[in-house]
Write a structure and sequence with these properties.
The complex is a heterodimer of chains A (455) and B (432). Helices cover 8% and strands 47% of the residues of chain A. Chain A contains four helices and 20 strands. Chain A is globular, with a radius of gyration of 24 Å. Chain A starts with a helix and ends with a strand. Helices cover 39% and strands 16% of the residues of chain B.
Chain lengths: 455, 432
Amino acid sequence: MSSRPVRIVLMTSLLLAPAARALAQQPAAPAANLFGPGTVVVLPAAAQEPAVPSDVTWDFEDGPSLRIGKAFRVDFTAVVQGDFRSYDPTPDDASDTEELETLRFGVEGVLFKIVEFEVKYDFQDDDQPWKDVYANLRLRDAFQVQGGHFKIPFGRERLRGVGSLDFIARTLVSEDLAPARDLGGMVHGRTRRSGVGYAVGYFRGEPEGAINRIAVPDFEALEAPDLEPTGPIWAGRVTVRPFRLAGAEGWFKDLEAGADVMTATLDEGLFGARGRSWFGPEYFPRVYVKGRRLGLGVDGAVEAGPFTVQAEYLRVTDDRENQGLGDETVPDLLAHGWWVAGTWVVTGQKKSRADEPDAWFPGRGFGAVELVTRFEQLRFRSVETGGDEPFRNPRATNLYPNSDTAWTGGVNWYLNRFVKAQVNAIREHIEDIERTLRPGQDTFWTYAVRLQVSM
Amino acid sequence: MKRDMLRGGRWAAVLVLLATTSAVPSAAQGVEDFFNGDVLHRIDLRINTRDWQALRTHYEDNTYYPCDLKWRGITVRNVGIRSRGLGSRNGTKPGLRVDIDRYSSGQRFLGLKSFILDNAWQDPSFLKEPVTMELFRRMGQPAPLEAFAQLYINNAFAGVYVIVESIDKDFLSRNFGQNDGVLFEYEYHMDWRFDWLGGNLQSYADIFLPKTHERDEPEDLYGPIEAMVKRVNETSDSRFEETAGEYLNLEDVMSHVAIENAMAQTDGFVGEWGMNNFYFYRFEDGVFSRFLVWDQDYAFGRTDHPIRYHLDQNVLTRRTMEINRYKTHYYNRLLDTANAMSEPAADLPEGTDPMSWFEWQVEKRHRLISQSVASDPVKPTDMEAFEGAVSYLREFARLRPWVIRCEVAKEVRARDADEICRPPEGSGQEDR
């Protein structure tokens, strides 16, 4: 990737461009001509280009969008996130950090109203730069077929885009238990009226998420042992809005409940689910597994005016066939966690319309300000003790439990549709005092600030 | 006061302390039993067969594998082992580091946090290291405790190993009554002979690996080492003793070198390829330090190994030997070592021919392990080579004290040098 100064210049430019565009925008300006001089957008020139066929149009209301009649549409997307993080206490091997966290550009569109596609590339992700690269065949809303590289349907929060998160970071539960994108195929659909959705997919088994990423077992290793990724993954998710389905009215009618299931074969090795804290280190390193991974989840979310409440529980068990010290099969690894989060748009807008243009900053108002809080816990242990005392080694019959319990509080400021600022404070408590970044100390604080530009 | 402290063996008190603070109920067993060199121990490791296979396949890695340890009815669960060694690393008979506290920081075995299972891969006799360390201790120098063991992996005999005490905080406590100084392991990277490497501390960080206080600032860790080396190199002759003495007890340094040269060690403090095989401990609250002996697989070199071997190639030993007091001390320590070697063995079993202490150290260990070596499925050489190597050690033990005395007599131009140099009867050296 580019050097740090180049990144900073690039980031600054990208951050300032939409802000300048929003700044130049006047309340009385016609919708078709939102942008003043000096913006990077080429609308005036393109609009005046006589060689372009008359059915080719550009639209900039939600970002650059090229349309050819009703047959083709392609939207150009970008997400840029710059983060500053500070730690208390300061880790021995780190200090305050500032970095361009995300620099993602892409296109998404529709061909003949039936084929949808998306391609996204993140210049800041050296390991997995290609994000969504897929095509979706929308035969009906209730029956669609998707293939390519995209998110495995498992976990409510994991399926949300990085630009639309209420917090700077996803939950510990999502990060460590829910796989992210993988190469595969999926059948999915949703009925708009009843709010029932489903997705069932089959994936290669090398997702980019933490749970399947292969790590060198020991940082002191001179050479990484040959380790293989997991086998193919089956995953499915169902969502339902029960009150809407029952025809009930009220603030709760859009309450959505979801359930997930995932299963994969686990090759033999140090592939068990692991726990990583925001503060840095692994508080539950990988253990030896072999057999099958089974993931289950339930979740719910409701929005009522400026308020939202969401909660999720995920549970993953990993078989440990023949993984004991005497080659015996030992009780499964259990990794399970939950989170509950609430948000309140204190400036009064509905949550889903917090970035609507009537209060855009600058020019029309102060934007929208939102208070957010989240409580979560992720815990690891053996499914059962096996009649043995707990040990911390990765082949222990009874795995010594450990957990990370975290509280996050923060403020989001939606300046306009394109720019968002977030401030989070995260307090973590590690259960096992021997497996923290600083043995003997179990509570850590992380402070983070994010500036995001997206379209 | 510190120097007095260095010599003060506080064995008894520390051993009692170690025994009483052991996390494992050890009945009457103690660390002295575990390192009892008169016994061939049996150590059992219970480990997943895939891990043992992986450790042998990836023997160059330092990956830890969990296992259970058993010794004399004491079982320690949840310990970690990894491959170890430099030239001796191999996948046929891997040398092992056993970390008792790998997965539980407070866990101890007889008070020990760790120990080494040395595969003796570079020593066909198996005996060089244990006998040399025994001699160091006999000469009042701190040295790791060692004993022989049959290692069983999942109930299958995996070879004869040497149990070696780790040089760690426990070792420091046992020998010096303190352990909160900074302990370094010398990591051989280049032919270094105590020359000043410049002011860049990284040059010293590359070869002095901190084993305690690992997270201290580089200035605190390596600054005193750089200063010591620089001053040893650059201080004028008239101030050398005083200046170097701020950092080192020069008598201890020369004692260390004298014993290694007496043992014809070619890969030690004044080794053939530069300095090697030592630890370095900087005592609490200051810069005063000392060297600690480690890994003596290359001892028992030639019987006529020069007693001034490479002293003039190492800045520290060369400059120290230029001071008469230390030159005298060095020769005296050589003679002390020769005398200690040739003292009549006191603990000979009935019916055993009289022999010297040094010869008995070789002989009794040979008796202890020869049968097990014969059945060792992964020994580095065949039995003929083993017996041949032991035979050479016997010859070395018989002749080396005489060679040392003779060479010292020549060096100091003793009037009775000719008498001293007359070969002992039956030595086969009458023509020398």
